[in-house]
Design goal:
Blueprint lengths: L3 E6 L6 H18 L6 E7 L4 E3 L5 E3 L1 E2 L7 E6 L5 H5 L2 H12 L1 E6 L3 H7 L7 E2 L6 H7 L4 E2 L5 E4 L2 E4 L4 H14 L1 H10 L15 H4 L6 H12 L7 H7 L4 H12 L3 H19 L4 H7 L5 H12 L3 H8 L2 E2 L2 E2 L3 H5 L4
Helix pairs in contact: 1-6, 1-7, 6-7, 12-15
Length: 338
């Protein structure tokens, strides 16, 4: 293959970063690889061209959909605030289905997975989308196994990514698949990305995990949990902080937060543990204790069940700070060029 043809289908109101994030990864990989390997050649096609205005006001120059005929290496489908309009365009949905049949692989960013599902491409497959729309996708497309947790999911020739910036992580994974980890890591470094996240990493960051409910008693209980993660946190004690009976507290907490108090505590402990693994030199045992796990074994089981990695594996991939300050140790760990 002399080059890898990447066709990006854009539509009025698509999210700009869904488009620009991945293509900047491909362009940077081209520049860093030089003459080695097959370069990426990016094309834009649209039914709304030739000038297509993104949701942020940025304008993309695109060719008609007919220009996307012929073999495609990677078909890229973005999401956007106007996705509902795109889903009601049968010509666009049909074109995506036909183009997918001519593509070696098909990738979507954020709500772009809805368009793949609408074209019937994800039936019987596992996929992801932005966490805020995962339930809507599961309801609309019951034949698709929607997993709201990972930042991207690879199932056969289809790669679906979660919200917005995860399209960059997905594109780095595509570069790694095409050219190896050294170029993918060098591309991440050049784009000043501290981490090259693997697809199994949760799209629920520590910031999302720490979002507090609007209901004052539940919010007070959440704040108390965050301040006391190193201590045992029985539901009865948490309910007392909210000045509610245990039964009523459990019912209201689930309504307001979307999960049980016990699940929330475990998820918050894991979020804090991830932060400590990434940003400190504490031992695994010290982190387990600070996050309220009674034993290291309990910590390992909970961590593995949530993220599919051991704490040691997670630190190996994602630690960006040492006790002496900020560092980038990827070239030491994975053999990529310094």
């Amino acid at each position: 293959m002399l080059e890898r043809r990447v066709v990006v289908v854009v539509y009025a109101g698509a999210m700009a970063l869904d488009v620009t994030g991945p293509i900047e990864v491909f362009d940077t990989a081209n520049r860093l690889s030089g003459a080695a390997g097959a370069p990426y050649r990016v094309e834009f096609v649209s039914a709304d061209g030739p000038l297509v205005r993104m949701s942020s006001g940025m304008v993309v120059e695109a060719s008609p959909l007919e220009a996307g005929q012929g073999p495609i290496d990677t078909l890229l489908v973005p999401g956007g605030w106007s996705l509902h309009n795109a889903l009601r365009d049968p010509a666009l949905v049909s074109w995506i289905g036909g183009a997918a049949a001519r593509s070696r692989r098909v990738a979507s960013v954020c709500g772009g997975s809805f368009l793949l599902a609408e074209a019937g491409l994800l039936e019987g497959r596992r996929a992801t989308t932005h966490w805020a729309y995962s339930e809507a996708m599961a309801c609309r497309y019951p034949d698709v196994t929607v997993d709201a947790e990972p930042i991207f999911v690879w199932d056969g020739p289809f790669v679906t990514s979660a919200g917005v910036s995860t399209g960059i992580d997905m594109a780095l994974a595509l570069v790694e698949d095409d050219h190896g980890s050294a170029l993918a890591l060098e591309t991440a470094r050049y784009l000043v990305l501290f981490l090259k996240r693997h697809g199994g990493q949760s799209q629920y960051s520590a910031v999302l995990d720490a979002q507090l409910a609007d209901h004052p008693p539940i919010r007070a209980a959440q704040e108390w949990i965050l301040d006391n993660l190193g201590s045992p946190l029985p539901v009865a004690e948490i309910a007392r902080q909210a000045h509610m009976s245990q039964r009523n507290f459990a019912r209201v907490f689930r309504r307001e937060v979307g999960t049980t108090p016990g699940q929330y505590v475990e998820r918050t402990r894991i979020a804090r543990a991830r932060e400590l693994l990434e940003t400190t030199g504490l031992t695994i045992g010290q982190i387990a204790g600070r996050c309220g796990f009674t034993t290291t074994e309990t910590f390992f089981r909970s961590f593995g069940r949530t993220l599919g990695l051991t704490p040691k594996e997670y630190r190996h991939r994602f630690q960006v700070i040492s006790p002496s300050g900020f560092i980038d140790r990827r070239h030491e760990r994975e053999g990529s060029p310094a």
